[in-house]
Amino acid sequence: MQSGQDASAHVDAKTTGGDAKAAAADAKTATPGMMTTLPPLPADAHVEQTIQLNGKALHYTVTVGTLPVRDSKGVLSGEVVYTAYTVEGKDRPVTFAVNGGPGASSVYLNLGAIGPKRVAFGAQGNSPSDPATLNDNPGTWLDFTDLVFIDPIGTGFSRSLVAEGDAKKLFFTPTADVNYLSRNIYDWLVKYGRLGSRKYFVGESYGGFRGPRMTHYLQTQLGVAMSGVVLVSPYLNPAVDEHPDLSPLPWMMTLPSIAAAHLEREHKLTPEAMAEVISYTDGEYVATLMKGKSDPAATEKMLAHVTEITGLDPVYVRRSGGRLETQSYLREVFRSDGKLGSRYDPNLVSYDPFPWDPDQRSNDPLLESIIAPTTTAMVDFVTRVVGWKTDARYYALSGDVGSQWESGEDLNKGSVEQLRESVAADQKMRVLIAHGWGDLSCPFMGSVLTVNQMPAMGDPGRVSVHEYPGGHMFYNRPESQLMLRKDVMEMVNLH
Hints:
The chain has 16 helices and 15 strands. By secondary structure, the chain is of the alpha/beta class. The chain folds into two domains: 10-238 and 371-493, Rossmann fold, CATH 3.40.50.1820; 241-364, no CATH class.
């Protein structure tokens, strides 16, 4: 039984009904090419809830509502739906949360990582057909910061109100995406009178790409400064793994995470063991790769050590030259069992439906398993518990957004430039970059190398990389989730 489910939900028609009417009016008077067939979304709805956290009752208000997105002429072009959790109290910070994709809603951070409720997903043994039951989340951040989860256009219930061609320009490029989402944060702060609050941002995966760019845009263009930024498994520096035929960097990304997955299977994964792996990777391993064929003895030694720390077949390691490509590895490591590992968490496996094909044909095991529980839990919570009644479709992960996305060179530039500039401009802002050791989609080693190349800019600890057992969604390991909570709480308490 979910605590607070029987609490009365209500719609705040006084404060939001005008917004709904304005949205409907805008849709009727839209310019040619606007989509006018969509019914208006509901007005903001609220419900009071309670969870038990560390033996104490925590009372809070849930709000599901919309924020308008307008084009340069002021015409309504989209509606962003958010879910906010707020607690009564003076000087409460507020944290804005965005997931990635592009095409992912914020449900994964919300009902998996840091919201007050969670549903089981993304761990070995979870099944899409398991009951999507919400339980109190011991890893929530709600006791030390209010939380606002934002669903970008095309995800969750958020939607474009313009034709597809216009939507690409307004929403589905890295720059346009950052600009309108930053404005959403500004608008929420104004709407609820929270401009004076301490403000934080958390982004996961591509949300970690968004984070530094949104922080810099808010800081320099909208006049809103973040006290801290948390990047969870961030897609921070996309170009770091380019030129695999010449640069050792791509193989430095994969080796430590593959070694971590092996250590976890052997029940030997510890910070000390990973310190040895990292030291080898950015020392002897990279030096050997740089020597190439000029030092056969060093190559033989490297092949033997890579075999040892990964537990892989020595023939496979030799054929790969000690350079371990992600998808090849994920098929090879579990081939004898007829299974596939996930690039998001190599130790999360499922049966390979096409085991004799030369290339992987099926989707990633983790992505296939998380859509049903997160969608079911979120739609039921929003429509039944909170009372935000809509029959619109909910997109936990939208392939349509991904197919329309236009990245170009802007994506390859990454977000490191904006990260450096934001930290340089605000000597009190702190950045916590969090990774699971086993993640092969956004390997932790990329962030380690990236941060090591940044100037200190005062306290070198202002930008720090934290690593935990697990994969991309390391927070589905209870111990890792609590370690993240502790580290973020310490950062917030420093201000």
